[in-house]
Amino acid sequence: MLRWLALLLLHPAYLSADVVSLSSQNFEQVIQANELVFVNFYADWCRFSQMLKPIFLEASNNFKNSASGKIVWASVDADKNNDVATKYHVNKYPTLKLFRNGEVTKKEYRSSRSVEALTAYINKQMEVTVQKFTEKNALQSAHNPEKNSFIGYFNDENSVEFKNLMNVALFYRDECEFLVGIGELNFPGEVPPAGQQPKLVFQPSNKAVDPAQVPFSGDFATYEYLKQWVADKCVPLVREITFQNAEELTEEGLPFMILFKKADDKNSEKVYTDAIVREIPDQRKAINCLVGDGTLFKHPLSHLGKSESDLPVIAIDSFRHMYLFKNFEDIHVPGKLRQFVLDLHSGKLHREFHHGPDPVTFQTGNQTPDTEPPPSTFEKLKPASSRYTILDKTEL
């Protein structure tokens, strides 16, 4: 704390040297004109924002010799520029977000707030994401079977298709790995002849329910099409929830539907995933479909009146209450899981918990006393509403 106070008191001019101040007027112009823009959203009244300012500035000085248009460190007074903060869902301070080629990246910065950590993060973001190979054995050795991977074969790395893959890979570097073989002679039978579209396949990790390769067959030359295809594979419809990523998932703002299962139970996960793909693919922006280890998350199960012996169990956590999908085997009944999700959005789950099955008519004086569904447990994993927090969460 003494360090940042000294910088504030002794070097006031230094604090504006290499961090660009952004506002509603120049925000879009700056993020569009630079490859990387690392933005500190702050509030003057927040002491944590004041603590970060000199640290953020000192880290920015490590990049002052970067090429023009490569990297900009910037700050936004979120109180004075509420429209910008609202657009990017900033509601705690300080929040650090990275913009790449004018687009905000999926994950905001959540690690240590030190000069060394911030510097290392940006250096990492500036690294080339796609691994290139000219030898088959080297590519195979580099492939990590425990990670979701995209494997491509290109004749020409100067092509539009290759450049599109390079740019897409930058956005999903944390979720997937990207490996590319270059040259028809180096990869006979894999690299298409000159004049034909390059080859790209998605290889799920060996932990996936279905590890079969998925070939890309769309328009490689259209960046947005390729990006959407990669996103659909890299960020699947069903994700795993852990204590390490729960805070991040809560910040997406969507209620959770979670399959609690035993760690080695692949069958229920496949049944659950198949049902979601079949019945609620259109609900991706309305609910987060997750899978969790029922042994680790035994506390939420107890709130539902369930234990490890009852696994697998499906439940929705709305961040206010938890609702139980009463019988896992009902997932095989067409429309049952979809109705469970729609009943959450319509408020029916909450109404029926209080008053019994719809429709119910209550007479004054004879209304059934209100009861409450089990309270949300994952709501407790949200960060503080007014600032960023890093907590070592190992239990609820």
Automatic annotation (TrEMBL):
Gene Ontology molecular function: protein disulfide isomerase activity
PROSITE patterns: THIOREDOXIN_2
Xref: CDD domains: PDI_a_ERp44, PDI_b'_ERp44
Keywords for this protein: Signal
Region (Disordered) location: 355-383
Signal peptide limits: 1-17
GO biological process: protein folding
One Pfam family, short name: Thioredoxin_6
Residues covered by the Thioredoxin domain: 11-127
Polar residues bias (residue ranges): 361-370
InterPro entries in UniProt: ERP44 (IPR052643), ERp44_PDI_b_2 (IPR041862), Thioredoxin-like_sf (IPR036249), Thioredoxin_domain (IPR013766)
GO cellular component, one term: endoplasmic reticulum membrane
Protein name per UniProt: Thioredoxin domain-containing protein
